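Trying the structure run again after the queue cleared.
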Amino acid sequence: MFILKRQDVDIKTMHHPQKDQQIPILSYQGQTFRLLSVFTAAQEDDARALWRDLTDNRGKACVLLEEPDRFSIWGKIRLDQFDEAGPDTGTPTAEATYIKACLLMLQVLYMDVEDLLGAKQARQFEGDIGKMFAAWKFPQAVTPDAVKNLLTVDPLAMPQLPPWQDHHLHRLLEETHRVGKDFFGNANFTDRALEAIEDLTVNEQALFRRWLQQSPSGKLWA
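Done. Tokens:
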């Protein structure tokens, strides 16, 4: 939508309606935007790739803000809708590409457990992942049916991805790796799991791999 400089915009904070925290709000020509993602100055290519994906491929109204030390992406909101929004509005969900990639990796591991170790072990895997979702309060992953869907429904075909945040994905990667080692006895499954992201576009694969390299849990899968 727009690529703007800091002097082009006005950034203020407002109190989140459901949380005791301040939320940055960007204003430009009478329009308001909330913060979605922040990138360092060295991550300019990643920032531009995500901004183009959001605006060109997914029809989102977004601002890419260029500053000397960082790049940030802001999504358009209406303040009256923000005031009425649910409790998670102030904390952006993770980039959809990252959620899809993590689900693809989880699903191929689940399929490998079933194919190589049998249905009984697959049910145990499903139970272990369900306990992890519950323990770390993953949204839309509470019921057994929800867990089953997350393990079996192609994320590229999901009508709506779960609204997980980056910290959920870090925890998912850590716990999936731990559970995988428990079932297979080693970490040889990681290469096979990473092959699953080939279902994504080339740009999405590159974006996810860069994010994975920089994430706290990424070293487990590198």
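Residues 2-84 form a domain with the Phosphorylase Kinase; domain 1 fold (CATH 3.30.200). Worth checking whether this holds up in the mutant runs.
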